[in-house]
């Protein structure tokens, strides 16, 4: 059995790794690395859920870790990777409003702002358990950084990853502060999968007419010839 | 005056001068292996230095005393910096008075000397290299200051030996703030030693040269001194990272066996870090010049975050 002190240190390290992965999501231009970083970030969330589950002896958290592992670490990245291979986009070099350096600076300010706000709002939690307080700050900060990724990136596929990162922030906040019911977590996960499916399909045909869209789907082998004829 | 700090300083200096070329070669071997080449032998760095030391020095017709003095001054300054960074032995009294701020200025001074040397020979490439080096250093200096400030804040002291002493009290790799700080320090090693993706030390292309551009007109013994300075600078930066992140093995009480074990351990840790640098170099392409500040921003972000996390945790 792991000692509680060790678990708490591991949790702090995981939180720091979450921030490092969020910074990488804002600056990485290579799409494969972006997807890999997202998968890694989700894996860290799995580790966090397991560690909190161990501390609190809560089996629901272990279930949440399980579905996060299946959906966010394996499922969604796998699907995005397939789409990415089909549409042959390797890099996202376009940024709007903010370049990666500027995005990092804004994130820094946002983290500071969240910390200042939370130190007033969650004063009790801060005095009671600084680890859970920091978890909540980093959770909301991750949401904000995901939001920055959404509006600084131009390609739809990278915007999706920003959205997914935002959801990771919600999950992190949920793990540390509010205990979301398992069913809600599950529904969010299903929502995410549908979002990824829809967006990747739209990514393929966003700038085409219906006819051209069908042709483009065929071009990318997303839709087989028989299905089109039927 | 106690004899121990002098002994510790001399030992440190000798050790750093001895092992520095080895780490440079390890990086080259890893890069070569990544490109499916055999790479140079492990002692190639020493052979190169020996060869260069034997060769004649040729000066440009336009060269002033700067070209003659800069190589010696550069190595001498770095040797002073070595006295501030205990690599394997932290004596009770430091061999030289100084702290992280002095260390920072010593590094900046060698950079300044190199830029002067680039301009001194009056060649186009030298001037171009100096111009690029100074443009980059204008951006990197604030980041370096913040990284060192974060180090000082985490350890609660400006003295480098005290920082290492503080690191020995923490379980290696188990402090979140030190983990964050290591990311910034690693980026700093890449930047300060002119490695890919910031600079390519092995190229002689006009488009990519920064460090090499300034050294194009340097030859023989002078080039050997600069090569050695570069290697010493890299070892110093690596020692900062290693002794803060994994200070296992660093000794505080001198003994022959302790020193030998500490030296072997540092050699292993340094080789592992050199392999990591080589892997990073092989995985990235050289960045466009105007995209390099993005990397500095990462180091700045992580070091600012280190201070913030130290407050939050």
TrEMBL record, chain A:
The answer, when asked if Hydrolase is one of the entry's keywords, is: no
Matching InterPro entries: HyfE-like
* Record keyword Membrane present: yes
The protein's topology relative to the membrane is: Multi-pass membrane protein
State the UniProt keywords alphabetically: Cell membrane, Membrane, Transmembrane, Transmembrane helix
Q: Name one GO cellular component term.
A: plasma membrane
Tell me where on the tree of life, at the top rank, the source sits.
Archaea
Transmembrane intervals: 6-26, 38-55, 61-83, 95-118, 130-151, 160-180, 186-206
Where in the cell?
Cell membrane
What PANTHER family does the entry give?
HYDROGENASE-4 COMPONENT E
Q: What is this protein called?
A: Hydrogenase subunit
Species this chain originates from: Methanospirillum lacunae
TrEMBL record, chain B:
- What kind of membrane protein is this, topologically? Multi-pass membrane protein
Q: Which domain of life is it from?
A: Archaea
Of the GO CC terms on this record, one is:
plasma membrane
InterPro entries on file? ComplexI_Subunit1 (IPR052561), NADH_UbQ_OxRdtase_su1/FPO (IPR001694)
Q: Write the record's keywords in alphabetical order, separated by commas.
A: Membrane, Transmembrane, Transmembrane helix
Pfam families referenced in this protein's UniProt entry, alphabetically = NADHdh (PF00146)
> What is this protein identified as?
Hydrogenase
């Amino acid at each position: 059995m792991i000692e509680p002190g060790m678990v708490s240190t591991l949790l702090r390290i995981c939180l720091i790794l979450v921030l490092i992965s969020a910074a990488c999501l804002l600056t990485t231009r290579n799409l494969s690395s972006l997807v890999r970083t997202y998968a890694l970030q989700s894996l860290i969330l799995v580790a966090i859920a397991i560690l909190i589950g161990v501390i609190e002896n809560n089996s629901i958290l272990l279930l949440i870790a399980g579905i996060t592992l299946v959906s966010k670490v394996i499922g969604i990245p796998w699907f995005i990777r397939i789409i990415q291979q089909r549409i042959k986009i390797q890099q996202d070099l376009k940024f709007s409003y903010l370049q990666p350096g500027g995005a990092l600076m804004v994130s820094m300010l946002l983290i500071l702002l969240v910390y200042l706000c939370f130190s007033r709002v969650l004063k009790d939690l801060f005095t009671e358990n600084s680890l859970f307080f920091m978890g909540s700050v980093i959770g909301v900060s991750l949401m904000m950084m995901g939001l920055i990724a959404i509006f600084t990136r131009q390609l739809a596929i990278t915007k999706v990853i920003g959205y997914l990162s935002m959801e990771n922030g919600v999950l992190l906040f949920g793990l540390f502060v509010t205990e979301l019911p398992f069913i809600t977590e599950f529904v969010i996960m299903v929502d995410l999968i549908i979002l990824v499916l829809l967006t990747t399909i739209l990514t393929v045909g966003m700038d085409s007419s219906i006819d051209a869209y069908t042709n483009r789907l065929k071009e990318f082998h997303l839709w087989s010839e028989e299905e089109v004829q039927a | 005056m106690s004899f121990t700090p002098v002994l510790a300083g001399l030992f440190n200096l000798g050790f750093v001068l001895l092992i520095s070329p080895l780490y440079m070669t390890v990086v080259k071997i890893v890069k070569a292996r990544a490109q499916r080449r055999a790479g140079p032998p492990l002692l190639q760095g020493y052979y190169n230095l020996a060869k260069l030391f034997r060769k004649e020095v040729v000066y440009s017709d336009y060269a002033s005393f700067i070209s003659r003095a800069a190589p010696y001054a550069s190595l001498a300054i770095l040797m002073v910096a070595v006295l501030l960074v205990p690599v394997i032995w932290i004596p009770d009294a430091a061999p030289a008075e100084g702290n992280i701020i002095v260390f920072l200025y010593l590094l900046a001074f060698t950079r300044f000397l190199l830029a002067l040397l680039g301009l001194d020979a009056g060649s186009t490439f030298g001037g171009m290299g100096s111009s690029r080096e100074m443009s980059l250093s204008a951006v990197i200096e604030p980041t370096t200051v913040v990284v060192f400030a974060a180090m000082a804040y985490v350890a609660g002291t400006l003295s480098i030996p005290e920082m290492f002493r503080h690191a020995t009290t923490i379980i290696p790799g188990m402090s979140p703030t030190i983990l964050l700080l290591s990311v910034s320090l690693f980026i700093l090693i890449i930047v300060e030693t002119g490695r890919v993706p910031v600079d390519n030390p092995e190229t002689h292309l006009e488009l990519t040269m920064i460090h090499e551009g300034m050294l194009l007109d340097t030859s023989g013994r002078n080039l050997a001194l600069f090569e050695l300075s570069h290697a010493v600078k890299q070892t110093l930066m690596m020692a900062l990272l290693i002794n803060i992140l994994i200070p296992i093995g660093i000794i505080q009480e001198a003994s022959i066996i302790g020193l030998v074990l500490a030296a072997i351990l540092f050699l292993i840790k340094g080789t592992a870090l050199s392999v990591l640098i080589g892997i990073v170099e092989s995985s990235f392409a050289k960045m466009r010049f105007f995209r390099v500040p993005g990397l500095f921003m990462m180091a700045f972000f992580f070091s600012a975050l280190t201070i913030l996390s130290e407050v939050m945790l």
